Amino acid sequence: MEARGEARGEARGEARGEARGEVRGEAKGEAKGTLKGQLLLCQQLYQQGLLSEDKYKSMTESLNQQLRALQRSKPGND
Predict the structure, then answer these.
(1) Where are the domains of the chain?
(2) Closest listed residue to residue 34, CA positions, set 61, 67, 56
(3) Are 38 and 67 in contact (CB under 8 A)?
(4) Distance of alpha carbon 75 from alpha carbon 21, whole angstroms
(5) Which end of the chain is more exposed for a tag (fewer CB within 10 A), N or C?
(6) What is the DSSP string of 56-76?
(7) What angle do CA 31, 62, 52 make, to 5 degrees?
(8) 27: buried, middle or exposed (CB in 10 Å: 19+, 13-18, 0-12)?
(9) What is the rounded CA–CA span in Å between residue 65 and residue 55?
(10) How many Cβ atoms from other residues are within 10 Å of residue 35's Cβ?
(11) Rounded to two decimals, what is the model's pTM?
(12) Per residue in 17-31, pLDDT tens?
C-alpha cells in the first residue's frame, strides 16, 4: 500500500515539475523574443535615421545586457 502511494506521489511531483519547467521555458523564450525584437527595431530606426548613433548604442547595449543575463540564467532561477 505504501509503495503505491509513494509511486503516485512521485508521479504527481514529476508531472508538476515538468509543467512548471514548461511554463518557465515558455516565459523565458517569450522574453528573449521580445528583447530580440526590440534590438531589431532599434537597428531599423537607426538605419532610417530616426535614432542617433549615441541613442542607438545606449539602447542596444542595455537590451544586449538584458539578453545576456537572461541567457545566463539557469532553469529554475527565473
Answers:
(1) 2-72
(2) 67
(3) no
(4) 8
(5) N
(6) HHHHHHHHHHHHHHHHHSPTT
(7) 120
(8) exposed
(9) 15
(10) 20
(11) 0.72
(12) 888 888 888 999 999
